[in-house]
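tool=predict chain=A
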Amino acid sequence: MTESSVKDIKKFKISGKGSAVIRAVFAALIFSSLQLFSQYLFYMFGLDDTTYEGLFNAFYGVFVSFCLCIYIWIIHKPGEEPMVRKSRMIAPQWIMVVIIGLGMVAIVGVYFSIAHYIADLVPKVQESMTDYSDNIGRDLPTVENIVPAWDHILYLISISFFIPVTEEIAFRGIVQGELSKQFSPVASILISGVIFGALHFQPIQIGYAVLCGIAIGAVYYLCDSIWATITIHSIFNLLGSGISQFMDSGVIPGLTEAIKDKISSAIFYTEYLMMLPAITCFIMLYIIHKGGMNKFSKEVVNE
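tool=predict ok
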């Protein structure tokens, strides 16, 4: 093979990786555009996404997921591996996935503790923390804007199911799927994690979103199933903000501050107790992925 031929091959590989990044970023931009379009459609019907934020999130989740499925159908070529992986998981994998989800919430809690410490020293970080606090979660109702109880319930369902499904199809299924065609598993996980974090826009949120995106992307690769990442994402949203906001909504009568504190404390200690087990579960998922568990089982049977 001549030197010029080698150069041509290298150029082809570079262009292949470049096109994979472009396709991944394009898919992420389509996702963002669909988010904005769903909000526009919601306003067209004369609905307020502050009063009916639960309804909006449910509508957005279903609408965007439907559009993403059409997008996958259009770009998928006959004979190719499915873009969204849905391999069957064994029971130990499901248990490990749940533990990882619990541990990930605690790790983000540590991230915020560090961020608060830095914020006390750096004014710019303090501004970002304040901005994050002002914009995260749903707005508190006012006298003119009373949120119906059913919308609070729908909001909890939406951020615990509809939103995780939509975002996992977009970022693990399509974005990471496009990257994995040209990049190594590690590179595709890192790049998709960065893209996932960048689209959160808010500086404080970007930091933990990148960490979560990388962790969830690794689980997607190791389990080869979108259901694993949806489960983790659901646990994260549910325990990260869903339950606390639902308890503050007033939907449950007789829920005193003392009971809220007990529930919050139970969730807090459960999350932090799962940090080290979550790391262990990552290692175990890697062993299962490499076939180590199957080899171990065969050795036990032979003995």
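Residues 3-44 form the longest helix (42 residues). Residues 294-303 have pLDDT under 50 and may be disordered.
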